[in-house]
Specification:
Growth Hormone, Chain: A, two-stranded antiparallel sheet
């Protein structure tokens, strides 16, 4: 194989990437229309809608660490198939629910299904790639195995293509009622579960009880306990959690900014632009994720991760500066924010996912990826409590309109500083079973 030819993913990896595409099609075909169902069909209040969506988000992100631990214990294939079954059941419940309480229960089931599915997929995908810090050899697939960073970049692209197609399909099915949309989603996840069961290797469940580390003559702790005991990994999770909080503002703060540029209208530029800006974000990832990932592989991790978070902070700062004044070019600040936020996302996510695999080292990685997502889910809840009270003022060009945006810029800015310090002092390494020990900083991502 030529050195210039990137390694081709294996059949299992291709199945995982296709599964991510299908999973996002099913998700985005249904979840964006939950608020429509609650408001128009069930006459739910704004508070009830917010609670339902918050329960769905936290039941997924908050349970990721459990899903990851289960994947490590029982095998990724079993847990992924269980996740598709639970999500399919949740969508069936959404189709049949006739009251707000039952919608909340159904929404929680969809979230739990995702919590079972995603950490297992990420850990299995990580196992399908190489850590470029180690010399490739027969044991890890040699040069025919792509890097973890490339695989997670491909995962992002496949997911975003699904995120583009999902709302289109959902809108078409919505003409036949929300129940038709939810039933179609339930059927899709059921099919995905069957395909995964037939295609993925069975894997092996770990036996209960501690495994002995013969090199040190001591029991090896469960992966979730090892993850939480690693203080550097915990700091990494806390710093990285501001990414999910920042990304969540596409659903929370972007409509607020669009209200600011079209005040007093129910169907102004804000409503017309929202779908276009989501399409812009997804299109950027589809087109630019792989080139950005290739660039970040050439940069030190002490540069790539902080730079990504600073891009996110810069996006919030752009809106914060212009928010107190009447709009001059109305959509320009929102476009700049979406572009900078998406560039930050493309820079940060593949590098961070590779670092999680290196923190895990020889241990099963599911609990590590689960812990990372759980930290993000908690950050969304707590961060929303901090910024939420300031968002009403941000709907109008008044002196305090920028406060919420400055607060949202602060979180990724702090993360950039923390991550720069963390990786300057120490780097995760796959061969070390004592991850709290200092490790010299590398000059490139993937080379300790």
């Amino acid at each position: 194989m030529s050195a210039r030819t990137p390694p081709r993913p294996t059949a299992v990896v291709r199945t995982l990437l296709a599964t991510q595409f299908a999973f996002n099609v099913g998700f985005y075909a249904v979840v964006p229309f939950l608020a429509v169902r609650l408001h128009e069909d069930l006459a739910a209040t704004g508070t009830a809608i917010a609670v339902t969506l918050a329960v769905r988000t936290f039941s997924q992100q908050g349970m990721f660490v459990v899903g990851g631990a289960l994947a490590d214990r029982y095998g990724a294939r079993r847990v992924m198939v269980a996740g598709t079954a639970v999500r399919s059941l949740g969508y069936l419940a959404l189709a049949l629910a006739g009251s707000v309480p039952w919608m909340i229960v159904a929404a929680a089931l969809t979230g739990i299904g995702g919590a079972l599915f995603s950490p297992a997929l990420e850990s299995l995908l990580a196992a399908g790639g190489t850590d470029r810090s180690a010399p490739a050899g027969p044991a890890d697939g040699g040069p025919d195995k792509p890097s973890r960073e490339r695989l997670f970049a491909l995962l992002a692209v496949c997911g975003e293509v699904g995120a583009v197609l999902g709302p289109v399909l959902g809108a078409l099915l919505l003409m036949h009622g929300f129940s038709a949309v939810a039933l179609a989603g339930a059927a899709l996840f059921a099919v995905v579960g069957v395909v995964l069961w037939l295609v993925l290797p069975p894997g092996r469940a770990r036996r209960p009880g501690p495994r002995v580390d013969r090199g040190a003559d001591r029991p090896e702790p469960p992966s979730w306990r090892a993850a939480l005991r690693d203080r550097r990994f915990v700091v990494f999770c806390l710093a990285y959690s501001s990414y999910l909080l920042s990304y969540n503002q596409l659903y929370v703060a972007l409509p607020v900014e669009l209200d600011r540029i079209s005040p007093g209208t129910g169907t102004g530029a804000g409503d017309r632009a929202l779908a276009g800006l989501f399409l812009l974000a997804a299109g950027l990832i589809v087109v630019a994720q792989l080139p950005v990932a290739a660039l970040t592989r050439r940069l030190p991790v002490t540069v790539s991760l902080p730079a990504g978070f600073l891009l996110m902070a810069a996006g919030f700062a752009v809106v914060a500066v212009v928010a107190p004044r009447p709009p001059v070019v109305p959509l320009l600040p929102a476009i700049a924010w979406v572009v900078l936020l998406t560039l930050g996302q493309m820079t940060v996510v593949p590098v961070a996912m590779d670092q999680v695999g290196r923190f895990a080292g020889p241990r099963p990685a599911g609990a590590y990826y689960g812990a990372l997502a759980t930290a993000g889910g908690v950050a969304v809840l707590l961060g929303s409590l901090v910024t939420g009270p300031f968002l009403d003022a941000a709907r109008h060009a008044v002196p305090g309109a920028g406060t919420a945006w400055w607060l949202m810029a602060l979180f990724p800015a702090v993360s950039a500083v923390v991550l720069a310090m963390l990786f300057r002092r120490a780097r995760p390494r796959a061969s070390d079973d004592s991850p709290s020990d200092p490790i010299p900083t590398s000059t490139r991502n993937g080379h300790p």
